[in-house]
Sequence to fold (509 residues):
Amino acid sequence: MMHLRFLVLLMLLSQTTFAQKLESGGALAVPGHSEDRDFIEKVLNRARINSEKLRSVKGPVVQADPTPPSLHWPVRKSIIVTDPDVQAISNYVDQDASETEIQDYDCGERTYDTHRGVDISLAPFAWYQMERDSGIVIAAAPGTIVEKVNDQQERSCTIDNPGGENNVIVIEQQDGSLALYAHMRTGSLTAKAVGETVTTGEYLGVIGSAGNSTGPHLHFEVGYWEPSGNSFEWKHRDPYAGTCNILNNESWWEEQPAYYNSALNSIATHDQSAEYPPCPETEVPHYSDSFMPGDTLYLAAYYRDQLKDQNSHLKISRPDGSTFSEWDHASPEEHYTASGWTWSIGLPGNAPSGEWTFSVQFEQQTLEHKFYVNASAPPPPTMPNSNNAYNGAWFDQSRDGEGYNIVTTPAGTAIYFYGSDSQGKRFWLISNVVTDVIVTGNDLTFIMYESTGGTYDEPIGSARGLSVWGELILNFADCDNGSAVVRGQDGEKFSTIVKIIGVAGTTCT
Fold:
């Protein structure tokens, strides 16, 4: 369900100026398609029935016209993705009821006929990103799971014979409306069952291409069932407010995103041009950060919602900071949903060794990418032995069944928290890896993640299921005593902690 236009431009530059320029390529159109409404409405109907069963006191199935919820954006990049983003809007809801015209909420044509949701695509290299679980689907609002399908094949590239139905999850939101998340990866859906609740931002699954889909994307649809005689009629809504939205007057977003959300998704260096095999084969980006003098260097910038009047300033800097080459770039077309531009340049035979920098300034955004000529990337930082002093198990003597495990390796320090949430439910949190040196009396802040996507029998893969829960702030008086502040979805908790188990061989046990 995506109309993804992807432009590849190849330019040949001299060492310092545009002595010669070669442009090639053009828009690559994704095949046309349409929704499998029969399947989607069957899923939504099962969700309605399950909702009825889950209600302790039966009333109307849902509100006739619910108060719009405050939706958060339903996609985030995986926590292991280092690029700024991996997504782009490929389609909005079609507001035109006829079968011959299309129109989105802003009176444009970023949709296709009878489309009833918002399509959020992976970009660049959609299949490559999908295989790395780069696009995580999260709950746009709190609610109850009322339907899920998790076993359909994830690699559809056609609507004629998709080879399976859809992987979907449906959430009944607190206002009574339903939110449907479709086309996710096989087996990626949260381990929670129908009847269990989710919170805003909680992991639901991973973007895939299941069912009637022509590429990896999320179909996000909201609406409600309205009683109609002896049956019910599905009333879809457009979460965006706009001049041409005839479905609802108010925005359903907490903060409505811009119609064109222009940004750089990533910049990169390659050792040759990227390969785009026939769908659904995986693209081969040929990423590389290591080069030798005399090599051809391929530099790329990948955009979403790139507009014709937007300028980019690109620059290559030598290890000493001097400019090797710089130039400006602008798209020749009015709009690209997602675009990729590549420039090639020959490094001179006497190119200085060391760390070079490729930078792109676009609108208010500046990205830098490091690459290396006749040199290796610096090794990861090695943690000082002093951090090992805090390794071990810590707990608050006033609280039973709750504690912290602190682990330091040469790569950094990480924290594992085990305890209970505000409802008394057991849960674990794991932190990011921090490379700061622990200094007595100073605060050290960790981002804490909660896993909601796996089970003990089938652990989460890659970064699947990890959702940001909050933060942990540690402060040590010495290597045996300290304090901890846990602050997140369930509020804030302060603990005075002591070490009960140290690690042999460290400076303090």
